[in-house]
Design a protein that fits this description.
- This protein has 250 residues and is mainly beta.
- It has helices spanning 47-52, 167-175, 241-248; strands at residues 11-17, 23-33, 36-39, 54-60, 70-71, 74-75, 80-82, 84-89, 103-107, 139-144, 158-163, 185-189, 204-209, 212-221, 231-236.
- The chain is globular and about 50 Å long.
- It holds the Pfam family Trypsin.
Length: 250
């Protein structure tokens, strides 16, 4: 389902440019303050850079890629593009298992002002519990520009409500394909044709509490897209609280 304009003001999209000057937007991110976003480590290292080229800028306030025109960082429709000063990748990141699939991107300067379409996500430093008695029917919202049912990436950001998937069940499921799920990850989804997919990587898994969107997960990996009883795997943001806070000071 398409999101509304300004519905998710913390949503970011990463702008890559290849050696031919061609722009692509294969990953998302989430604004956490005036100078930083969180994204997936696999969005800023490895295969994606070989395929899409250099990470050029971070775009904020985006909704419909087909309607936005940017020249030298100045865009229409209230969109802004931020230059990148530093990318910090978790030292424990493993490309195969996607453990610690998290990275922090620092802009070269702070955003001047928050707007209705650009503002930070809420962070809750209460440890996520895999106990189903605490989260028996919890639903998350994933947001991004990823591939949809017609096999195309969307120009407009989409949102999808997906259920929390029992942690122990997820561990057992992925052990069948020799992937070890840890407490630094969250599993969600597992319903046929309802999933995040290519192009959603690095984007947010949100919980709306009292009108505020809390960042619980970062789109990381999974087995295909939308396969029955194969949940998506998300980096557990709260489990990385200490790493985030430590690197915000650098």
């Amino acid at each position: 389902m398409e999101s509304e304009l300004g519905e998710f003001p913390s949503l970011a999209i990463l702008h890559y440019v290849n050696s031919n000057g061609f722009s692509t937007f294969p990953c998302g991110g989430t604004l956490i303050n005036k100078q930083h976003i969180l994204t997936a480590a696999h969005c800023v290292t490895g295969a994606i850079l070989e395929k899409s080229g250099k990470l050029h800028k971070v775009r904020l306030g985006e909704h419909d890629l087909s309607q936005t025109v940017c020249t030298n960082g100045t865009c229409n429709n209230g969109v802004i593009e931020m230059d990148i000063e530093k990318i910090i990748i978790h030292k424990g990141y493993d490309d195969r298992s996607k453990i610690h699939d998290i990275a922090l991107i620092r802009f070269s300067k702070e955003i001047d002002n928050y707007e209705t379409n650009i503002s930070p996500v809420c962070l809750r430093w209460i440890p996520q519990s895999p106990n189903p008695e605490l989260l028996p029917t919890h639903n998350f919202t994933a947001v991004g520009w990823g591939r949809t049912l017609d096999a195309k990436r969307s120009n407009v950001s989409n949102k999808l409500e997906i259920p929390w998937y029992h942690h122990e069940d997820c561990k057992q499921r992925y052990s069948k394909v020799r992937i070890n799920i840890t407490d630094t990850q969250i599993c969600a989804g597992g319903k046929f044709k309802e999933d995040t997919c290519d192009g959603d990587s690095g984007g947010p898994l949100l919980s709306n509490i009292d009108g505020c969107d809390y960042l619980d997960g970062i789109v990381s990996s999974g087995k295909g897209c939308g396969l029955e009883d194969w949940p998506g795997i998300y980096t557990n943001v709260t489990a990385h609280k200490d790493w985030i806070m430590e690197n915000l000071k650098l």
